[in-house]
Design a protein that fits this description.
This protein has 7 helices and 9 strands, in the order E-H-E-H-E-H-E-H-E-H-E-H-E-E-E-H. With 240 residues, it is an alpha/beta fold. It has a single domain, classed as Spore Coat Polysaccharide Biosynthesis Protein SpsA, Chain A. The longest helix has 20 residues.
C-alpha cells in the first residue's frame, strides 16, 4: 500500500523556481503516495510573485496549499516548525524550493522509512560556493562537538520524518539551527535516524539567502543568530 505523504517546500523570493519545484513534487508523489499534498511555506516578507503563482496553482490543484510564515516568525527554523505543524499526513518530507535537489530521490527515502523514524540526506558533490561549503563543514563539526550529533550533513534540506516524531519533539529555534535542532532532539528522544546520499545541483535561478558574494561567504548576521540559538538549544537540552 502506498503511504500518505505531505511535502512542504520552503520558499522566499522563489518565483523563478517555484513552478518547477511544485510540478516535480506532484509528479513523484503521484507515483509513490496514496493521499498527498504539497505545501509551500512562504515567508510573508517575500517580495516577488511567488505567492501569486502558488495561489493560482492551488485553485487548479486541490493537493497544493499555500502556508504563510508571518513576519514576526522569521527564520529557517520557524519555517520548518510551521511546515511540520501544517502537514496533514503520517509521513512528512521537506526541501527547499530552489531546485538544488532532485526530489525524485524521495522514492528511495520512502523505501527506507520503515527502518527508522527519520531518513535524512547527505549531499554528494555539493554544488555550493566554496565559502558556503567551508562554513558548513565548520558548523557540522561544531554541532558534533557541542551536541554529540554524528551525522554526515546536518543542514541538508532533504529529510523525511514520521509525523509521530513530533509527539515528543518540539521545535523552537527560529534560525538556520532548525535542521540541527530536529536531529538533536530526535536523538535525545531515542528516534532512529537513517542517512542516505542525495544528489546536489547548482542553483540556476534566484538568489541565496544565507550567503553573499561569488565565494559564498555566510553573512555575519546569520553566524551570530546561529550561535545564539546554539547556546539556547544546549541550555534546553541540558535542563530538560
Amino acid at each position: 500500500m502506498k503511504p500518505d505523504l505531505s511535502v512542504f517546500l520552503l520558499a522566499y523570493n522563489e518565483e523563478e523556481n517555484i513552478l518547477e519545484a511544485i510540478d516535480e513534487s506532484l509528479k513523484v508523489l503521484g507515483e509513490i503516495a496514496g493521499k498527498y499534498e504539497v505545501l509551500v511555506v512562504l515567508y510573508e516578507g517575500s517580495r516577488d510573485k511567488t505567492r501569486e503563482i502558488v495561489e493560482r496553482l492551488s485553485e487548479k490543484y486541490s493537493q497544493i496549499r499555500l502556508v504563510t510564515q508571518p513576519l514576526d516568525q522569521a527564520g529557517y527554523g520557524a519555517a520548518l516548525r510551521i511546515g511540520f505543524e501544517s502537514a496533514r499526513y503520517p509521513l512528512i518530507f521537506y526541501t527547499d524550493a530552489d531546485n538544488q535537489f532532485n526530489i525524485h530521490e524521495l522514492k528511495e527515502f520512502v523505501s527506507h522509512i520503515e527502518g527508522g523514524d527519520l531518513v535524512v540526506g547527505f549531499r554528494v558533490n555539493r554544488k555550493d560556493p566554496p565559502g558556503r561549503i567551508l562554513a558548513a563543514k565548520a558548523y557540522g563539526l561544531l554541532i558534533r562537538l557541542v551536541f554529540g550529533l554524528k551525522v554526515r550533513d546536518v543542514d541538508c534540506a532533504f529529510k523525511l520524518v514520521k509525523k509521530e516524531v513530533f509527539e515528543k519533539v518540539r521545535l523552537s529555534c527560529g534560525t538556520g539551527m532548525g535542521d540541527a535542532e530536529l536531529l538533536v532532539k530526535a536523538k535525545k528522544h531515542g528516534f532512529k535516524i537513517v542517512e542516505l546520499p542525495v544528489s546536489h545541483l547548482p542553483r540556476k535561478k534566484g538568489e541565496a539567502v544565507f550567503h553573499q558574494g561569488g565565494m559564498g561567504f555566510v553573512k555575519p548576521k546569520v553566524v551570530f543568530n546561529l550561535l545564539k540559538d546554539m547556546f539556547k538549544l544546549k541550555k534546553e537540552i541540558m535542563f530538560s
